[in-house]
Every structure is written in structure tokens, then in C-alpha cells.
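Kindly inspect what follows.
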Amino acid sequence: MHQGMHTDTERCLRAVRSKDARFDGWFFTAVLTTGIYCRPSCPAVPPKAGNVVFHPSAAACQQAGFRACKRCRPDTSPGSPEWNHRADLVARAMRLIADGTVDREGVPGLAARLGYSTRQVERQLLAELGAGPLALARAQRARTARLLIETTGLPMAEVAFAAGFSSVRTFNDTVREVYALTPGELRTRAPQNTLRTTPGVLSLRLPFRAPLNPDNLFGHLAATAVPGVEEWRDGAYRRTLRLPHGHGIAALTPCPDHITCRLTLSDPRDLTVAISRCRRLLDLDADPVAVDGRLRTDPVLAPLVDKAPGRRVPRTVDEAEFAVRAVLGQQVSTAAARTHAARLVTAHGTPVEDPEGGLTHLFPSPADLAALDPDTLAMPRARRTTFTTLVRRLADGDLRLGAESDWSETRARLLALPGLGPWTVDVIAMRALGDPDAFLPTDLGIRRAARELGLPSTPAALTARAAPWRPWRAYAVQYLWATDSHPINFLPV
């Protein structure tokens, strides 16, 4: 819908003149006379049409020699929704870059995960985003550095290291180039009350495109929380995170115009990845205007959307964990699924310290679970086979469920496993792979909602009726589920 929006000059100019925040993150305005780049909603007086060029990414603006505006802080826009509803090479590359792959494995590692040559990946990213993988990763490091400079009291050398820079000198040069301020100046300009003194705890705001309805998002996460790994405490959803360099704890609190995120990390180098995973978990880069606009065209869905717009799809911070939990949840109640998962966590999870509350473990990795004795699993034999086959495939790398997954190929691989039917595969596609068009026509809650709303309730007929909702059927699922009084639909008290 918005693909390549930066090439539609008229449309971009209209968004800039009306200071339309819905387009923040879709494109950036670079002002030739001042050498700065802004988000569309920048509060400054809009520049003359002849003095601007539009770029598809902050990295492209930086490549072209523009500096970030100090008023609108374009580097803090929500990410482009484009990478969420596409499964092509560029979208998968962008999800991996956000997850820190280039910083950890370099461009060759990125290309290897995508199954393409380094040259192909660089060419496609340049063509669509005006910047290659290194420039995109550098823009992300600059953003992380700024966040640490402004919200923590960490010494600058530690900030450089945590943001992923290889040296303090590169860090200083990059920050100066991108923000036209030294790291020290950025810190003195930051509001002093944002500096946190709790050692090891980082507090930040995660932006999103309005509207955002937190009810089903946090309701779902809290109602299905696995004891020891997740909890709802003091108005926040808290959970443990398994990260590339260690572990962490995230506490996420919904606020009217942002999500407050408190992170406790065992290694500060994991900050970028932790933020990326929290954003993904809460589906914060979604474009609710596009989603709700499409669903409102259906007279049955329109009243549901109008009543509570901006529903997001609750996702996951760990795709393998979610797949395992989906199998544990087959044909049992939410409570029973939590009990099964809690037993696995106690027996096979990695213990962690939580200074603030009741989190005790990381969810066991596929390798931990592949080593367990299947006879200890309190479940029917067929499901035990499904469980052991899945964890073995995940552990040996034969099945990969990550940001790089090709949705249709991964679906086919999952369906080939014993005991994984369409419901389980679609729930994994929706919440772990992030496919915005995943649909659950066999789900009991969906069939009940369909009957009540006068929609066809047999899977084939409902699927046919839902065709006009594409490519946003996963969001339609959230609106249909919300017609029920199940706890997943309500923000915990």
C-alpha cells in the first residue's frame, strides 16, 4: 500500500504540511537548505517544496549527509510497518538487522541466514532503502547510543560498547555525524529526570502509531503467562528474556501515547535486541489505520473495530518457545497449558535472579528440551511424539523459526511434522512468525464468534467469507476473539 511511498512527492508533501504522525517511520524529509532530516510530523514550519527530498530510511538520510533534527528526533519514530506484513528478502533482512544480526555476525552472516549472496542482499536493500546493511545497522547503533546517553548514567566507553560500536572513536565520530552533537553534549541536553540511577536497569519509551488498544494485547499475555517466566505485576507485563550475550527481564506498561519499558540486562550489548523483541512482542510497528481501514469495509466487523480500534496481535519474544507452548496447548484449556509449561520450566529452565518480583527462570531452550526423557511428560502418547519431534528439529537447526523465516516455506515444514494440524501451524504463523494474514477458521472461539455475528461457522465457508479481510486476517481474529468474555480480552486489574 505504502511501498516506496518516498517516491510519491505529492503525497509526502501533503503528509508533511498536515504534520501527519501516521506517516512517521514510513519516510523521512531531508531539507536541502539546512542539512537536517525530519519525521513527517515535525513541529517546525514545513520547508518549501523545492527545498526537500524524501528518503525511505534514516540510514539513507545519513548516507546522503543529513543530520537528525533536534526537535522532532526522527530516529525515535516507530519502525516502518512495511517489514511486518511482507515476507520477501528485504523485509526479512530488516527484521534480522533490527534483531542485531549484522552487529553479531556481519553482513556475510546476515546473507547466510537469508540464503542469498552478500551482493544480492546489498543490492536489494540499496534499491529499496537507499542504504546497505552496514549503513542500516550503523543508524541503529546510533539510535541505541543516543538512548543510552540520554537515559542512563553509564560511562561513555560502556555506552559505545553496549550500542555495538567496535571502538570509542567510531562511536564519537558517528554520534557527532548523525546528531551534530558530541555524546557529552547529548547528555547535558537530556532532561535530567530521565537519568536512572538504578544500576543495570534501563527505562525507556517505546513509540507506536495510534490508536493502540492494550486490552487484548496485555490481556492475552497475562492470561496465558507461564509462572516463573512471565507475570502481571503493578500494571506491567514482566517476563524473562533469553538474549545473545546473556539474559534479561523486561517490564512493559501500557500508557496512552507510548509503552514504558524497563529492562534489566546481564550484558548491556543485548539492549538493541531486547528492544527489538519487546516491540515485536507488542506488534508496535503495525499500521492500525491501514488494518482497521480494511476491516471496517466489512459491515460485520465495522462495529467491532469502531468500538475498540487499534487492536494488535500479541506476538512473542522467542519463536521456538512459542511453538513448544502451542503444542502444549493443543486441545487443553489455557490453565492446563500454563500448568504443563510451568512444569517444564521448573524442571528444565535456566534459573535467573529477579530483584523485583516472582520471575525465576528462562524458558528452556530446544536443546534443553531435546535432552529430556519423554516418559516424564504428562500428556497423551501422540502429543508426546509431536512435542519430541518438534524440539528435536528445532534443536538440530533443521527447523528455524526466526525473523528470517519465509512464512509459506516454514508453514509447509511445520505441517509435515506429526500431530501439527492447521490450527497449531496457523497460531504459530500468527504469533511466532508474525504473519499478519494468518487465520484460524477451526478455532473454537472464532467459530463461536462467527455464529453469534451471523458469519458462516464452517472452516471452508468462513475462510471464503474472510477473503476481503486480507492481508490482515490475523487482526480480524483479534476482533472476533474480543466478542467473548474470556480473560485474554481484558487488561488485568
In short: The two ends are 38 Å apart (CA to CA). The chain is about 45% helix and 10% strand.
